[in-house]
Each structure stands twice: as structure tokens, then as C-alpha cells.
Amino acid sequence: MRIDVLTIFPEWFGGPFDVSLLGRAAADGTLDLRVHDLRDWTTDRHRSVDDAPYGGGAGMVMRPDVWFAAAEAVWNDLPASATTGRDAPPPGAAFEVGGTRPRTVLLTPRGVPLTQPLVRELAAEPRLVLCCGRYEGIDERVHEDVATDEVSIGDFVLLGGEVAAAALVEAVVRLLPGVVGNADSPLDESFSNGRLEYPHYTRPLAVRGREVPEILRSGDHGRVEEWRAARAEELTRRRRPDLLEG
Ligand code: 6GU
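YS: structure for the whole thing
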């Protein structure tokens, strides 16, 4: 799968993406991750990506022209120079070759919640483009004409979309064929069956006076399954009663 990330902090996607399973997915070609500096599509001396809001108010707003140029170049696999300045496409709707734009996800606290079903849907795409916003917000025309999806990773506010994009990439890549922790993992069922996961234990049998529950050592698979289902139910009722309503 190819994933393009548009951000004003491309360095952010260095370290954590070169190590671990993500790094291995990149090395064996499962993941083709391309991180782009949004400022490559600025045309002024200061490489500015933001401006004051129409209508007034505090904070700055990310400029739509820079986002349009960046998205159009990435969609069409063109160099930055092709979609800025004199060579930019004519006025009108955002363009893409063949009329098919890759799934283009804007990470924003205004988005729909990122859930395992949405992750599965995104993992089935051949390409994703992830747009990371900063500052107080992004010009509404980017929300409307660049993004195909707007996604949030929870009910809290981050400084920008980078952390959310990283979470999305990790959730999607672990579902790709050949990456450990694939779609058949029991961890996935944690959310497919609407329950949080039951507790796990391994050796040693006792640690700091705390023993593994007797049932798990009984060899009675029926009782083990019952016990796990009951613990999962109990945990879910206590922490995530919203999951049980569905
Ligand atoms: Cl996607 N972006 C920002 N800035 N804050 C968030 C978020 C995204 N999801 C939760 N909080």
C-alpha cells in the first residue's frame, strides 16, 4: 500500500517509522510511505502556509492554495513545481488524473471517529493521502474539496494532525497481508465483537505474591472460555458501556 503524508513537520515521521514492524513493512515493500513537506508548495519568500482569518478572530488559518497545490501534485504523482505558480492548473475544482482521487484523509478533531471498521476499510485501499493540519484550523475549502474523509482519533485536542496520522498508519499497516498482528488476530476481535479483551497471563505462576487465576491452569477449555467471556463482559460494562449498547 502507498501512503502519502502531507505535513509541515516531515521530520516527525522519521524515527518511529523506521523501526519496528512499520520499518519492516517499508523494507519489504508492503508499505510505500512517502512524507512530503507542505512548504514545498509555497510560492512566497517566507514559505508561509497560514494567514489571518476572514471575519477576524484569534489564531491563523492554513491557506487553501498551498493545500490544493500539494494534494494535486501528490494525487497525480507530479513534482511540486507542476502545481504551483505559472504552471498551476486553471481555476476550477481540484483536479486529478482519470477522475479518481486516492482516499484523502484530513486528520481533524472535527472528523468522524477512527474505529476498527473504518481502519479495515482504509486498509483495503491501494493508496491513502493523509493531510496533517496545524494552527487553529484549515480553510473550509480544503475540508470540502481536498478531503474525501475527515477523521478524528478521539474526543480531545492535539496540536496538529501528525500524531493522529501516525496512529492511523499503524492501525492500517498492521492489517496488511504479511504484517504481524494481521486481520485474524484476537486483538482485532476485541472491537469486532463489541467487547474489550479478556486478561492474559504467562509464567511465572506467582509474582510478588500474585498468582495466575486457578481456572486458567485447570486444563478445562470450556471453563476457560466461560471465564474469559465473563471477564471481557465485566471490563466492558465498567469501562465502555457504550460498546454494549450496539
Ligand atoms: Cl485528528 N487532530 C487534532 N488536532 N486533534 C485531535 C485529532 C485530530 N483527533 C483527536 N484530537
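YS: worth flagging: The domain at 2-173 is CATH 3.40.1280.10 (Alpha/beta knot).
IM: good catch. Also The pocket of 6-chloroguanine is lined by residues 107-109, 111, 152-154, 156-158, 160-161, 164 (CB under 6 Å).
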